[in-house]
User: Fold this.
Amino acid sequence: MDDKTLTLLEFPKILERLAGYCAFAASTEKARQLRPTADPFEARRRQAVTAEATRLLVTHADLSIGGARDVRAAVDLARHGGVLAPNELLDIKFTLVAARTLARTFDRLATQYPQLYDIVAQLPPPMGLIDAISHAISERGEILDSASEKLAAVRRDLRVVHDRLMAKLQKLVSDPRNAPYLQEALVTQRDGRYVIPLRAEFKGRIRSIVHDQSQSGATLFVEPLGVVEQNNQYRELQLAERDEERRILTELSRQTAIHAEAILHTVEVIADLDLALACGKFADDLRAVEPKLHAFSAAPQTFAPGIHPGSVIRLYQARHPLLDPQTVVPIDVELDPQTFVLVITGPNTGGKTVALKTVGLLALMAQAGLHIPAHSGSELSVFESIFADIGDEQSIEQSLSTFSGHITNIIRILQQADPRSLVILDELGAGTDPQEGSALARAILSHLVERSITTLVTTHHPELKAYAHATPGVTNASVEFDLETLRPTFRLTIGLPGRSNALAIAERLGLPPEIIAEARREISPDDLRAEDLLDEIHHQRDLARQARAAADQARLEAEALRNELFSRLEAIEDERRKLLEQARSEAAAELEAMRAELNLARKTLARLRQPAESAAAALQEVQEQLEVLQERVEEPVERSQPELGPQLRKVEQERRRALRVGDKVRLRSLGAQGIVTALSPEEVEVSMGALRIRARLSDVELPTPSGASPGSGGAKTAQQVGVKSAKPIASAAPQADVQLSDLGMADTEIVSTRISAPASPGIQLDLRGKRADEALTELERYLDAAYFAGLPFVRIIHGKGTGKLRQMVRQTLQGHPHIQSFEGGGEKEGGEGVTVAILRVS
Assistant:
């Protein structure tokens, strides 16, 4: 790509923002060096990587490169024979640990994120350096005694000598006979040797060696002769410790040098992954989408003169990524299959240059693998080269040099451009005599049309409006101007040339009417009729836009009413469930009281030692009735969905058609986010990591976008935003569907990721009332079916009773090849009357 064009279109600023999302220096460097590719396959691969990273960050928001560091400088030092410091070796260890963790993580995610897995799969296998560093250096960067036997022995001797030395010195300073000679009763160090503070006037009273004196000269720091030998031993052991630590660091540095290439490759791979995650974060913050990229079908030399080159530019609600998202005005730029040259006219400061930069910059971003800030459905060609001549310098002093500079740049562009190029020219023919500039602009534009080069041009020359209208492959566009406020609207209109608002503006500003009338007489009648016709067309378009805005407002109000009603119905349902839960709690308390009375009656009969077979039989019958009642009480209260009237159902169906595959949504029942992978008129399928969740549309809502304006209402349900491009949720083979009604999520299903899973036996097995042998046979058959259907867990209802059935069930689950773990049911699942078993992944 042309470096000057990258600068003119502000692509380096985009890369600088992207670098801000990177986690360490190596990926930051890669972000700043990112360049658009002219290879359609590479551009699509980059877009796929960014799309996967965006989805991954939704389902695994905490995923990162861990403790990876940019250790390239340390590895290079080791490769050249240098000795690394403990902290540098720890950085290498943390980087290798992060690589190992990422490899394990993406081994589990390979099927969901194949492009990201391809990056991580390049990580070299473990090389043993992690264990070597961990064995020698602590997390705080200290060399451990376990680093070598010699170091452990030296440090052991060092502690013994130190303790003896300090004991002898403490005894000396604690001796009452020496107290008058000492400045203080303490032991300190000078030049690595332990000394005591002796008052200067008592020099010689204690046989010693003077090592230092205080600044005032009143204190001498002396080493008593009786500890000289021990001080010598202590110092020798310190030097031996230092030498052994140096040897250990040298050996670890040597091992690092041996694996230098693998470590550097690891850093590169982690940087590639971190860059992909940074692209995903950047896209999420920009509310950007993946564009559809098109390759040119013919070689440049096969294009016929003046024939459409096959380029595609369809940008819907495109926003310049460097402008404030709260104030930027989105534009639609769509070139039909017969158009490859666009001539934009309109007033100064109306947004013509921003429109050009938006198209050029989004094309560069798309070919660099970045998602673009536009609506889904946007499409772009992969251009082999993009050229721009945009003149932002408009000072009077540079007027002459600006024209010559533009012409020089245009000459260079014409020499290098071909039918696979995109050429962007701002203010073509400006900076010189209007008549000559207009002729030159028309000639340059004709040359580009003849060579079938996709071109976007802005101009003030009215002759180019007529040229665009009359020339095949060329169309007009304009930026609008509000005559009421005398301000540009920044909206781009394709198909209509810009109006000449000079007379209207002058009249609004108060120029005398006679001067306005005289000016009109100087204008050609044909030009005046054309301007009047343009005024009428723009007026009718404004009316249509206002009508559409009114219709949209009415639709939003209807949605608000519908949502309010739905919220009220949900509140009523919540209250119903609350009352039922309260009633169930009261019934459970009464059952417990009855059970206590029953137990008391049994104890009384046993104490009286009376034959009470009839009474015992009656008590047993009451016991069984109590168990049946308790099991009914323990059944969870399921949430029912409110029925909507015909009008609300119609509104709901209209809303459903606005949700698209690929949208990020939130499941209210799970409190988690995922990506829409399929739609049906009644349900939506959402991908959440390794799971695919099928839920009712009423359980789905869009998360609040980062750039939502205040008062936007926060998160929107699927009925608020609607559903577009609905596809049946079906596959070639039966799906392993799991109902979550027992978890309080009656409207949600977990769908197995297998293509041909056997039919599900259901998430719950009821063994109550069965004999032990019957229950065992049915349990084995059910576990096999649940395992092969891919269910994540199952609920086995055995009741409480005497506990024998529960014991048999749990003994069967213990060590069963299909079962990973099991536990008793929760408070609202039936407690000890239920066992929840987690199945292994088949």
In short: The first strand starts at residue 188 and ends at 190. The two ends are 49 Å apart (CA to CA). Residues 393-400, 706-757 have pLDDT under 50 and may be disordered. The longest helix spans residues 525-608.
